Every structure is written in structure tokens, then in C-alpha cells.
Amino acid sequence: MHALVSRARTRAVETLTLDSPDNRNALSAALVGELADALTDAGEDTGVRAVVLTHTGNTFSAGADLRDPPPPEALTGLLRQIIELPKPVVARVTGHVRAGGLGLLAACDIAAASTEATFAFTEVRIGVAPAVISLPLLPRTDPRALARYYLTGERLDAAAATTTGLITTHGDDVDATLAPVLDGLRRAAPDALAETKRLLTARVLEAFDRDAAHLTALSARLFSSPQAREGMTAFLERRDPAWAVR
Q1: Helix, strand, coil proportions of the chain in percent (round to 5)?
Q2: Is 230 a catalytic residue?
Q3: Strand partners, 44
Q4: In degrees rounded to 5, what are phi and psi of residue 73?
Q5: What does the pLDDT read at residue 67?
Q6: With contact defined as beta carbons under 8 Å apart, do 181 and 171 qualify?
Q7: pTM for the full model?
Q8: Neighbouring residues of 180: CB distance < 8 A, sequence distance ≥ 6
Q9: Positions of the chain with pLDDT lower than 70, given as ranges
């Protein structure tokens, strides 16, 4: 059976690659489960200094798999796992990111993208809301900019995503951009990295403690609503939903 998340290690950096290009690395129940297992192993392995999360194909992640979506609590758990992992997690993006995929980026400690990458919160266009992914996003991004892109579903380029705080940095060659980052992590003491990460993620975890139950329930309710059924059907049929004003 083809693994949906592949693993490789170079000089103490574990690279986890989302490898489901046929559905644009959509967050299926299976992919979320495999990624959670890989993160657990990396977190427990003393030979791992940092984790890089990347992808095959032209899309980092298209968001929730509409044919096999994970339970909202599974996505909530995955995002919290990334944030609580005692190793820094670095996103490497060379393609597009949509909807729930942006939650993965926000949960990562550092995110770098190529200049060809694009980003969009497409939830409102299929009748749902960016509920669970707001847990890491709201504490880490510019609120005025986020309001625009949450409400409209417009695309952002890499420069706008950097300004908004969706990603840390971007460049024509994402590997060249990340080279000094990974070099710095390799030179850092493991315990110091873990404690420094705890300082940086404290506010994000406060949001999880306060809002996770409510936003998980909201996500479940919206995904089962009539508007979501119409929106997802329209998306799969490549047509406008009934509410679209032409």
C-alpha cells in the first residue's frame, strides 16, 4: 500500500513529505493519521533535531479531502501535535496551499515558500468556515488582512502571505532560503530548542485550550449543513454553487 507520508533524514533533520498528489495532498483521514504517526516518531527520536514538512506535486495541501474528510477532532489534534512537538517544525512549500492546508502552515514554527506558491482560504466558497484552522492562525497572523482573505476567499501570492504572517519567508529557490534556517537549528542545543519553542507557542496553546471544543463542534456542524453539501457538490462538479451571484 502506497504511503501517504514518506520519511527521509539528512543530518538530523527529518523530512516528512505529503505524498498524495492525485488529490493534491488533501487532508484525508488516512493522510492525517499517517502524518500524526510520523510526527510522533520524530518527536520521540533523539536523533532528530528538527522536522521539515513538505510535499510532492504542485500543491502542498488542498485542504480537507471532501470525499474522505478526517473528523474535525482529528485535524484539531494534528495541529496541536505540531505545535507541541518538542522539535521545531519547518514547512517547505513549492506549490499551492488552500483551506485546511493553511492550518498546517500556521501550526509550523517556520514556513518558507517559493515565489510560485499561492494561498487561499476557500472555505466560504463551499459553504463552511475556517474554524479549526483558526486555532493556530488567529494568534499568528495580521487580523485585518486575515479578515479580508477569510471573508472573500481571494488568492494571495507569496509576498502577501509573508506580509500577512501566513508564512515566514519566501524566495525563488526555497531550498536556498531554508539553508541558513536548517543550519541554525542543527547548531542549537536540543533542550534549548524545546524550551524556546514552548515560549513561542504559549499563546497559541492558550487558544487551543480556550476554543478548540467550540471550533471543532462548529466545523462538524457546518460540514453537515445544506449549504456545505451544495458547496462541496458544486466544487466536485466544477460549477458555481446555487448561492453565487453572477
Answers
A1: 50, 20, 30
A2: no
A3: none
A4: -70, -25
A5: 86
A6: no
A7: 0.96
A8: none
A9: none
With cell 471543532, the residue in question is: 216
- The Cα angle at residue 204 between residues 12 and 36, in degrees rounded to 5: 45
DSSP collapsed to 3 states, 71-136: CHHHHHHHHHHHHHCCCCEEEEECCEEECHHHHHHHHCCEEEEECCCEEECCHHHHCCCCCCCHHH
Cα dist. 142→155, 183, 211, 245, 246 in Å?
16, 28, 19, 29, 31
Q: Tell me the three cell numbers of residue 3.
A: 504511503
Q: Which residue among the candidates 123, 154, 195, 230 is catalytic per the annotation?
A: 123
Distance CA(215)–CA(213), nearest Å, equals 6
10, 24 contact by CB (below 8 A): no
Rounded CA separation 62/42 (Å): 24
* Backbone dihedral angles phi then psi of residue 97, each to the nearest 5 degrees: -135, 130
pLDDT above 90 as % of the chain? 96
Domain made up of 1-173+190-246: CATH architecture: Alpha-Beta Complex (3.90)
User: In which residue are the cell numbers 506535486 written?
Assistant: 57
Kindly state the cell numbers that stand for 205.
496553546
